[in-house]
């Protein structure tokens, strides 16, 4: 199932993420796609709030993964932008997080696509400058790899 959402400002992107976080179920994996600066981290911050996480959420670009356990479900936030070899994912035990009882959000998921579960929820955020500088089209594809 594919759903296309529109965001006209940063707060919209945050709220769309929050709504999805409220609906998240244990064992869910979200693959987040989009160029630099489209709002992946803002979306993820909203998602975390939807899970009940109040602490600051930032992109774990240098640590690859950050764990948040204060919400209704454990939240595993991956940023795999700097992954150069899939073995790096094995080293951090990604399977425990993808197939556990928490929720995983993977920024730059296309870099590790072969490791993603079949029922991943794919989220793509795109800019369209013709509709405005802050406009974003957010495509949510539930249960589908890109």
What is the gist of this entry?
This protein is α/β, with parallel strands linked by helices. Helix content is 24%, strand content 26%.
The biggest sheet amounts to: 7 strands, mixed
CATH topology: Rossmann fold
Instruction: Find the CATH superfamily.
Output: P-loop containing nucleotide triphosphate hydrolases
Shape call: globular
The CATH class is: Alpha Beta
CATH architecture: 3-Layer(aba) Sandwich
Give the terminus-to-terminus CA distance: 12 Å
Number of strands: 7
Helix percentage: 10-25%
Helix count, per DSSP? 4
Low-confidence stretches: none
Say what oligomer this is. single chain
Radius of gyration: 14 Å
What are the secondary-structure elements, in order, as H or E?
A: EHEHEEHHEEE
Number of domains: 1
Q: Which strand-content bin applies to the residues?
A: 25-35%
Q: Biggest sheet, strands in spatial order?
A: 1-7-6-2-5-4-3
Mean pLDDT across all amino acids: 93
| Alpha-beta classification | alpha/beta
Please describe what this structure looks like.
The chain has 146 residues and is of the alpha/beta class. The chain has helices spanning 10-23, 40-50, 87-91, 94-98, and strands spanning 2-7, 29-33, 65-68, 75-79, 103-107, 121-127, 136-141. The protein has one domain: P-loop containing nucleotide triphosphate hydrolases (Rossmann fold, 3-Layer(aba) Sandwich). It is built from 4 helices and 7 strands, in the order E-H-E-H-E-E-H-H-E-E-E. Strands 1-7-6-2-5-4-3 form a 7-stranded mixed β-sheet, with helices on one face. The longest helix is centred in the N-terminal third of the chain and has 14 residues, at 10-23.
């Amino acid at each position: 199932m594919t759903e296309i959402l529109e965001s006209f400002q940063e707060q919209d992107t945050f709220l769309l993420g929050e709504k999805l976080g409220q609906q998240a179920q244990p064992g869910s994996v979200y693959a987040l796609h989009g160029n630099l600066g489209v709002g992946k981290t803002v979306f993820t911050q909203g998602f975390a709030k939807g899970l009940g996480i109040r602490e600051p959420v930032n992109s774990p670009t240098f640590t690859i993964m950050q764990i948040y356990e204060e919400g209704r479900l454990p939240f595993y936030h991956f940023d795999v932008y700097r992954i150069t070899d899939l073995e790096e994912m094995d080293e951090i035990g990604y399977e425990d997080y993808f197939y556990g009882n928490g929720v995983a959000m993977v920024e730059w998921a296309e870099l590790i696509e072969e490791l993603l579960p079949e029922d991943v929820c794919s989220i793509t955020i795109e800019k369209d400058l013709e509709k405005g500088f802050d406009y974003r089209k957010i495509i949510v594809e539930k249960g589908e790899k890109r």
